[in-house]
Amino acid sequence: MQNIDTFDFSNKKVIIRVDFNVPLNDKFEITDDTRIRAAIPTIKKVLSSGGAVILMSHLGRPKNGPEHKFSLEHLIPELSKKLGVDVKFANDCIGEEAIEKSKELVAGEVLLLENLRFYKEETKGDEAFAEKLANLADVYMNDAFGTAHRAHASTAIIANYFPINKMFGYIMGNEIENINKVVKEGKKPITAIIGGAKVSGKIEIINNLIDKVDNIIIGGGMMFTFIKALGGDIGNSLVEEDLIETAKAAMEKAEENNVCFHIPTDAVCADKFDNDANTQFCNSHEIPDGWMGLDIGPETGQAFKDIIEASETILWNGPMGVFEMDNFAEGTIEVAHAIADATKKGAFSLIGGGDSVAAINKFKLQNDVSYVSTGGGAMLEFIEGKTLPGVAAIEK
Ligand code: AMP
Question: What is the pLDDT of residues 206-221, one digit of tens each?
């Protein structure tokens, strides 16, 4: 494995897997540029060390081949501005155009390839596709932590074609270092705050965190599956009926392990899923029919704040409510501020997952926490102790 700080990039073409999966509005403008900003130091390092850069990424979830709304072309103006270089573009990530444009690329130049996921081969981890990408460059660098938990062609398989010249970019290196500050060096009490819409996709992580942390705080839409599992009335709130037993088992496991499982006691309820809905505070276990919980209530906010501020290590993934709507953002704002306050007092705080990152940026607290991870799923899997294919491919 090579190191970005010591490698000689002179006249080398470096293909970098970045995570430019950024949100775009209907005018194709970037609404949150966190991921692009994060990748700039890695790209600039290669350019300033005499290399040429070929960037590859996915964007969105195209279903069947190219779709204009998922074209990486939309990112060119912003990327060029941030790099101070006129970024070139190949309309296809493999094929003649990509080959020609890569060949012509000289030191200091940047070529962005079209969305990798316009090919099904990308997510299938197809070897022939990975080889075509590999043939464009002399060096492979992975700086896409967000997809490091996937064995895709560009995140893992491609590394097979670079037995020596492969390395992590700065994001990957930083992510691994900072997550280890929770997993390996986390000072107690450790608190994991898990929110967001659904239990599915997060239950495994919750189960795995049970023997690593002291407190698990549950918020967001997923809290209602837990509350229903406890026999509460949840009105019209979001629920995953098929996961009620699983939620019950997680709470029992937490009790056996002496882990405090904190379920909200009150909620902000609305009569429809709308910022202008009628609202009332309810006991979260007694939500009337026709009403739905869209945020944690003030009593819960205070209780969560106290737990967070007494923690030495904090991990946050997922909002406490529908924070995109101002009337249901208060719980997420309170939690974000409590994390910032704890950090000020010396705690280590790690924020990860698309929506927590969007929330922390929205509240302008990104500089008041210890580390904002760019990879939600990858971060959580790494915390679980799983081997990430994107990390293993570089390290082997
Ligand atoms: P996830 O991607 O699973 O982390 O979910 C994030 C989404 O969950 C955000 O868009 C929130 O608006 C949504 N969310 C949070 N709390 C609730 C809730 N109580 N009911 C419905 N959706 C929610």
Answer: 988 888 899 999 999 9
Q: Which fold has domain 176-383?
A: Rossmann fold (3.40.50)
State the pTM of this model.
0.81
Contacts of 159 (CB under 8 A, 6+ apart): 140, 142, 166, 393, 394, 396
**Residue partners of 220: CB distance under 8 A and separation at least 6:** 194, 195, 196, 197, 318, 319, 320, 321
Homologous superfamily of the 13-168 domain (CATH): Phosphoglycerate kinase, N-terminal domain (3.40.50.1260)
Q: Which residue has the CA at smallest separation from atom 20 of ligand 1?
A: 221
> Cis bond leading into 77, ω under 30°?
no
Using alpha carbons only, give the angle 147, 254, 245 rounded to the nearest 5 degrees: 80
Residue 86's Cβ-count burial label (10 Å; 0-12, 13-18, 19+) is: exposed
Pocket test for ligand 1, best of 287, 322, 333, 351 (most atoms within 8 A of CB): 322
Q: For the chain, what is the radius of gyration of the CA atoms? A: 22
From-to residues of CATH 3.40.50.1260 in the chain: 13-168, 176-383
Ligand 1 atom at minimal distance to the Cα of residue 353 = 4
Q: To which H or E segment does residue 131 belong?
A: helix 127-134
Q: How many CB atoms lie within 10 A of CB 248?
A: 16
| Dihedral over alpha carbons 386, 390, 395, 396 (to 10 degrees) | 90
Band (376; pLDDT cuts 50, 70, 90): confident
The strand pair at 110-113 and 88-90 is best described as parallel
Is 139 in contact with 166 (CB distance < 8 Å)? yes
